[in-house]
Amino acid sequence: MTSGISRSSTPQSSLPAWVPRLSVMDRYIMLELVLPFLFGVGLFTSLGVSVGAVFDLIRRVTESGLPIQLAIEILLLNMPQFIAYSLPMSTLLATLMTYSRLAADSELVALRSCGVSVVRLVVPSIILSLVITGCTFAFNEMIVPAANYQAAITLERALNRDRLPFREENIVYQEYNMMQIEPGKRQNVLTRFFYAREFDGERMGGVTYLDLSRPETSQIAIAQAAEWNLESNVWDFYDGTIYLVSADGRFRNIVTFEQQQITLPRTPLDLASRRRDYGEMNILESQEELALIEQTGDTDRIRKLRVRIQQKYSLPFACLALGLVGASLGSRSSRTGRATSFAISVLMIFGYYLLASITGAIAQTGTISPFLGAWLPNFLGIAVGIGLLLRVSR
Asked: CA 48, CA 25: separation in Å to the nearest integer?
């Protein structure tokens, strides 16, 4: 075994000379990590599916008459979500079990007697954790949201509750802009308000529109219906009344109409057409949804979606944090068996996800930033891993 990263190239190697080669030790430890990792993926995915999906589907089969073949299809569509959650757990289990086994068999002692430092010993686990981090990110972006959305659609249709691609009632759109309230002072104020009582997918009914963008005159439009005009990029209001109100609160003019075009963004239509849940959108779709919600001024939904977006970035890096903790903790124990390693992994995983839930909830209240709320568990995990590693190296 060699203690470093070999840079000697073989005739069969097609890699450039500047690319570091993995040593025999690196390949050996990585191969030792693969089997526990695959075992963890299968185990944690099975537990997650059983607790999070199977019991609910069995209840729907028996109580709601959900066909068994559709229940199986929905179960398969739910599996990517649980696989994604199992990857960080499996990384922790694999590193903890592998390094505990190497320590118990005195292999780590032999390597350290040859001059290999503890920091160098955990490099293979860090490399593998980074690879799993990338795979988790790609999996969460390309597979999980689409599978979750298809599972929800399939379940709704099977239960004869067709999930409409739009909101049916109470569509609210608020637009805020920075305006000068007094000399030298600007404030974000409401400039437009749009409300529709109902929506059938094409036309909105019971529409009220308030335009406060002009300080001298406010406009109130009430109409029986409104729909988006694709050719003119404006709204067509039907059978309504427009009230012009001066700054002192007096009515300046009242106009009734059968059809009136009003310049207003199509954002209310976009808001009404959005039905995907947070788990059914990737980062790009979430950012598009955030851009729409930010125009409404709904601060609670804005903060919640910002936290969710940051969590989509941070969750894959839990593989790196937990992998470092597992390797460092396993390196300092020489008598940890597989059952003990599994028990420790479960406790640490529970603690990590509990902490992630708490910090995420705090961030949604606005007490801390969405970035800190999503990334704090990873920062703490990496700090604990580095601390354990430094303690073992002494």
From this structure: 34
pLDDT digits (tens, 9 = 90+) for 144-192: 999 998 888 888 778 766 555 666 778 888 777 776 666 767 777 778 8
Beta bridge partners of 131: none
**Residues 297, 294: Cα–Cα separation, whole Å:** 5
Query: Rounded CA gap, 188 and 172, in Å?
Result: 19
Structure tokens that stand for 68 in this block: 């068994």
Q: At what angle do helices 123-142 and 24-49 cross, to 10 degrees?
A: 40
Report the chain's C-alpha Rg in angstroms. 29
DSSP state letters, 308-366 = HHHHHHHHHHHHHHHHHHHHHHHHT-SS--HHHHHHHHHHHHHHHHHHHHHHHHHHHTT
pLDDT digits (tens, 9 = 90+) for 7-61: 444 444 555 554 456 788 888 889 999 999 999 999 999 988 888 888 888 888 8
Half-sphere exposure in the Cβ direction for 141 (13 Å, CA):
14
Residue 239: closest CA among 265, 203, 272, 211:
203
Residue 329's contacts (CB-CB under 8 Å, 6 or more residues apart) are 96, 99, 344, 388
How many helices (DSSP H) and strands (DSSP E) are in the chain?
12, 6
Interatomic CA distance for residues 150 and 77, integer angstroms: 7
Q: What is the reported pTM? A: 0.73
